[in-house]
Amino acid sequence: MFRSCKGRLGVKTIFLGAALLAYPCATFAQHGGGGGHIGGSAAGGGGLSGGNRATGIENKDDLRDFHQIMAVQASNEQKIAYAGMLQSTAVASTELKAFIEQTGKEHNAPELASHDKTLEDAIETARALNKKFLEGFSEAQKSGLKEITKRLTKSDSDLAQEAKVVDQEVETNAPVGQMLISAQNLDRALTSFQRAQVDLGEEMSIENPDGNSNVAYKLLPVKNSITVANQPMAITTSGVVSKGVEKGDQNTFAVELTTDVSDLQLTIADVLRAQLNKSDRCGERITIQTVALNPQPPASLAEVQLHFERWACFGRDTMNEMAEGSGMIEVKMTPAVGADGTFQLTALIGRIDAEGLVGELLRSGSLGETVRDQVAQSTLSILRQGVDFKSVLPPGARSYAQLQRAQFQGTGSGKLLVVLDGEIRVSDDKLAAITGALKGQSSPVQSSRPELTSR
Question: How far, in Å, CA of 202 to CA of 196, rounded?
C-alpha cells in the first residue's frame, strides 16, 4: 500500500550546504558593507570583496532557495502536531484494512456496520487533525507551501467523498462486490491523502533520520461514561504524547488529546429541558423544543429553539394567557484554560430570531441571559466530568502535566471534538520513569512519517 520515498528537500539542502562551503567568501561578500572584507588587498591577496569576484559563479538563486526553505520550516510545536496528525492517518489506514477484511468475509450486516462506524470515526479524526495543522501555518508558510497544501486539500476532499460512498453502501446493505470496490477506492484516496501529508512534511523539513529524536506515544483511548439529567453519555479521549526539546534542565513532552463529545450533541436538548422547562400555573411557562450544537472552531454554537408563555391568575379559578410565542437564540461557547489549569467556557449570545415579548425577553430581558447561562453551565459541567486532561495519562505523569490550550473542532460530518494541548515537564532524574510509564500505557510511534511501500 505504501512505497519508500525520499524527498527532494534533503538533496536541495545538501547542495546548498556544499555551495556555501565551497564558496564562503563569495557568500560573505554579499554582506561586506562598511569596508569589511575577507582576503582583500590589505592581506596581500587578489580580494573577493566588492565587485571583483573571479569565481564566475552566481549564488543569488541558491541563496534565494535557501531562504525559501528556511521560511517554511516547521517549528518544534508544528513537528509535534505533525507527528500526531500522521499517526491519526495511520490509525485510519489500519481501520480501513480491518474493514476491507471484514467485507470480504461472510456477510454480517451488524458487524460490518460496527466496523464502518469505527472507520468513519478514525477518518474524521485524521481529517480534523489535518485541518488543524494547516490552519496553524504562518503567512510565509501559507505562501511558500501553497501548491502542496492545495494538493493535500484536494486529497482531503476526495477522501471525504469516498468515505461517504462507503457509509451509504453500508447503510443500504449494498452487494458485497460493490462495497469491496468502494472500499478499494477509499483505500486509494487514503493512500493519496497520506502521501500528500508526507510530502508536506518534507517541504517543511520535518525529518527524523534516526527514529528516536522525536518519539511519539499513542495513548490508549479512555472512555468515560457519565449520566446527566438521566441521560447517559459516552465520552472517549485519545491522544499523542511527543518528546520535545529540552529547556534548561527540564525535559518536555507535548500532549495533544482529542475527545469525541458527539454524545453531548445528541443529548444536550434533553439536558436543557430538565434545567429550563417550567410550567407555572400563574407565571412563566418555558418549553425547550430543539437544540442544535455544532462546531464553529475554536468555539461551538448552540442553537436553542423554545416556546414561551406568560399566564396571569385572577381570583381562585380564573387564568388568562397574557402572551405567548416562539423564538430562537444562539449561544457561542469558547473554551479557555484558567489560571489554575482548569477547563473553562466563555458564553456569548449571538443571533436571535424572535418577535414581540419573546424577542424582548431574549434580547434584553432575563430569558436570554438564563438560556445563555444554562447552556454554558450544563455544557461545562458535562465536559469537566467527561473530559479530564490528566486521566488519559499514566498515573506517574499526571502530576507533571499542565493543560495549556483548549478548543472545539469539527469533522466533515459535523461531529464535535474537544482538542486539548498541554505539556509534561520533568527533570533528568524523572525522565526514565516518565518514559517508562508512557511506554506502558501506549503504543510508541518511532517515526514522524510512515514508510511508504508500493502496492
Answer: 10
How many whole angstroms from its chain centre is CA 130? 7
Supply the mean pLDDT for the chain: 79
- What gap in Å lies between CA 446 and CA 442, rounded to an integer? 12
Q: Are 335 and 345 in contact (CB under 8 A)?
A: yes
Query: Could you give the dihedral angle defined by the CA atoms of residues 51, 53, 57 and 61, in that order, rounded to the nearest 10 degrees?
Result: -30
pLDDT at 65: 61
267 — pLDDT class (breaks 50, 70, 90): very high
Closest CA to 382 of 237, 252, 264, 259: 264
**What's residue 349's pLDDT?**
95
Grid cell of 74 as nine digits: 516547521
Q: What is the Cα–Cα distance from 241 to 215, expressed in whole angstroms?
A: 9
CA gap 160, 164 in Å, rounded: 6
* Residues 188/161, Cβ–Cβ less than 8 Å: no
Length, in residues, of the chain: 455
Which residues, other chains included, contact 424 with Cβ-Cβ below 8 Å and sequence gap of 6+?
Answer: 241, 252, 253, 255, 393, 397, 400, 401, 402, 434
Find out whether 215 and 243 touch, Cβ atoms under 8 Å.
yes
Burial class of 123 by CB neighbour count within 10 A (0 to 12, 13 to 18, 19+): buried
Which residues have a Cβ under 8 Å from the Cβ of 179 and sit 6 or more positions away? Answer: 103, 166, 169, 170
Residues facing 226 on adjacent strands: 233
Type of residue numbered 410: G
- Angle among Cα 229, 235, 241 to the nearest 5 degrees reads 150
Exposure string over 94-122, b if 16+ CB within 10 A, otherwise e: ebbeebbebbeeeeeeeebeebbeebbbb
pLDDT of residue 314: 78
